[in-house]
Amino acid sequence: MTPPKRPATSAELEEFCRIDGWEQIRETDHVFWQKVLASGEVLQTHRSFSAGRTFSQNVFALILREQLQVGRDAFWKALRTGKPVDRPVPRDEAPPAYPGWVVHGLLGQGVREAQIREWTPEEAQARLEELWATPRGANS
To answer: pLDDT above 70 covers what percent of the chain?
Structure first.
C-alpha cells in the first residue's frame, strides 16, 4: 500500500507517538512527547490541542526528519500496521534550505517564521520580492 502524499494531522502525529512508544511528558497549550532510543539519544516532539490541524508539507517534512527521525514511509506504515518503527530507519532528504537574506528580509517585513516554513524557498523569495515591490502603506 502506498503511503499518503498528504502531510499528517496533529491527531495522526499523536497516534504515531502512541504506537511508536513515545512517552507523554507534559501538557500545557501543547502536548509534549519524548522517546529515548536504544542509543540513548532523546527525541522530542509536540502537538497543539487542535488535533484536526494539518501540517504544511514543509513542516511535516521537518517534523519527520528532525523530531521523529523517520521517513514518510515508516511514519505511515506505523499508523497503518499499529507497530512501532524499527530504528535506525532511512530518513527523507533534508528539507530545502532558505537563503538567509530571504528569511531575514521576510522577518523584517513582519512575516512570522512559521509562515515562512510553509513556503518553498522559491515561494518565500517571490513573496519577499512582492513585498519589496509594494509601496509602504499600500497593504493597509
So the answer is: 89
